[in-house]
Write a structure and sequence with these properties.
Number of strands: 36
Shape: elongated
Radius of gyration: 28 Å
Structural class: mainly beta
Distance between the termini: 9 Å
Helix content: under 10%
Number of helices: 2
Strand order of the largest sheet: 33-32-1-36-35
Length: 427
């Protein structure tokens, strides 16, 4: 009679699910400057590779990624290349800017074609000037921020208006719409956490919020990214120089009034010590922030507590890390590190085979079993027939080293394998 040997991990069902980052898109030669989900299923990764721009799209919550648009700049001898800040309003309206010139490309057909928008003879058209950020309020109203210039549109970039920014103000970096008539822009790109407000109707600048003044000898806290969960609740992430080389602390802020007031809810050093660059929330409580060189931090209680993740091997020492939520799944991307999704692994046999060593020997009347598990968990041995009937059952202990535990057999069997699910026959 052929029987099956089962070794099962004895832990409560609620604890059996482990989470791990699983690579969903391999991208060793690609730089991914924007990762964004427009709803619970549609996500976009804007990538720059050797000579071409490519947009990847996922329609299954980040589980698989497929080329959605490609433009070969090198083949066309196009001087505009290296996609930079991008934005996806919805599945039809996509926007791209580039690293070396402040130009904009828009698609209104879901990424099938893009139209290039140039900005005449203004300072925007000069090499080296770029859009630090671009946002759309709706299908018509949008804004982009470049050094000394705020660019506005009310007809989806068919026409535009360029607003000068006084040098003492110098806005740049993240921007967001307070409402359809007011825009908040960071006062100083990567050097502040105060926002200016521009009133479109009145053509008027004002200070939108007053940042925290640092103690003497400390640098300013710097905002790198802003994410709003709804019309009032939002989060921001950034860094604060420690004064030791390029090292910086992780800083996260929270606002309840659309950015007029911010409170710091995370302020600490954590390896790698280069601050945080991107933040995204699934809902009011559950969110993540990431930083270059491999850093992921998560909260499930609205920022009261934060837990740092162990990052996947492909993400170590990569730069420009990004995070977004594909429905219930957080996804991350990094330059040359591809795209990963955080998933639950619930298969007990798969988990055992990956994390522990199981050794089995057979004598004339015993099975000698050793389970090497540094967590010292309990396991259950089951011998069942092919119909699923349990013939014999025992509880086993585990340990660090190879220590065989004898299991007396009620009848003698011939072992025919050495897996956690092992078939063997009556002798």
């Amino acid at each position: 009679m052929k029987l099956i040997l089962l070794i099962l991990l004895l832990i409560p069902a609620s604890l059996s699910a482990e989470k791990e980052w699983v690579q969903k898109h391999y991208a060793i030669y690609e730089v991914i400057p924007t990762l964004q989900c427009t709803d619970s299923t549609n996500c976009y990764a804007f990538a720059d590779s050797v000579g071409f721009t490519i947009i990847y799209r996922s329609t299954d919550q980040g589980n698989s990624w497929h080329p959605h648009y490609r433009n070969d700049h090198l083949a066309q001898k196009d001087s505009v290349y290296e996609v930079f800040q991008c934005y996806a309003l919805d599945s039809m309206n996509l926007y791209m800017t580039y690293l070396r010139r402040a130009i904009l490309e828009k698609s209104t057909d879901g990424g099938k074609t893009f139209k290039r928008i140039l900005f005449g003879d203004s300072i925007l058209n000069k090499a080296g000037n770029i859009f630090f950020d671009i946002k759309m309020y709706d299908k018509n109203i949008g804004a982009g921020i470049a050094m000394y210039k705020l660019v506005l549109t009310d007809d989806n970039w068919e026409t535009f208006k360029i607003i000068d920014i006084d040098k003492p103000k110098l806005a740049g970096g993240p921007l967001f719409f307070i409402d359809s008539n007011n825009i908040a822009v960071l006062k100083w790109y990567r050097n502040d956490h105060e926002f200016l407000k521009y009133n479109i109707e009145n053509d008027e600048w004002s200070l939108y919020n007053t940042g925290e003044k640092p103690p003497e000898g400390e640098s300013l806290k710097e905002i790198n990214d802003v994410f709003f969960v709804n019309d009032t609740l939002g989060y921001a992430c950034g860094s604060q120089d420690t004064g030791q080389g390029d090292f910086a602390k992780d800083i996260i802020w929270k606002t309840y009034d659309r950015g007029q007031h911010w409170e710091v809810i995370l302020d600490q050093e954590h390896e790698p010590v280069f601050g945080l660059s991107d933040i995204s929330f699934r809902n009011e409580k559950h969110g993540m922030a990431v930083g270059s060189w491999g850093k992921i931090v998560e909260t499930t209680d609205g920022g009261v507590t934060w837990n740092y993740h162990e990052v996947p091997d492909e993400v170590y020492n990569t730069i420009r890390m990004l995070v977004a939520w594909a429905g219930e799944y957080p996804i991350i991307a990094s330059n040359k590190g591809g795209i990963h999704r955080l998933e639950e692994t619930t298969g007990i046999d798969e988990y055992i085979l990956k994390s522990i060593d199981i050794n089995i020997r057979q004598t004339s009347d015993k099975l000698l079993i050793s389970i090497e598990d540094k967590n010292f968990r309990k396991y259950k041995l089951q011998i069942v027939d092919l119909h699923g009937n349990i013939i014999q059952e025992e509880e086993l202990s585990s340990g660090i080293g190879t220590l065989f535990k004898p299991v007396n057999l009620n009848v003698l069997y011939r072992l025919s394998g050495n897996e956690t699910n092992t078939a063997f026959e009556n002798v």
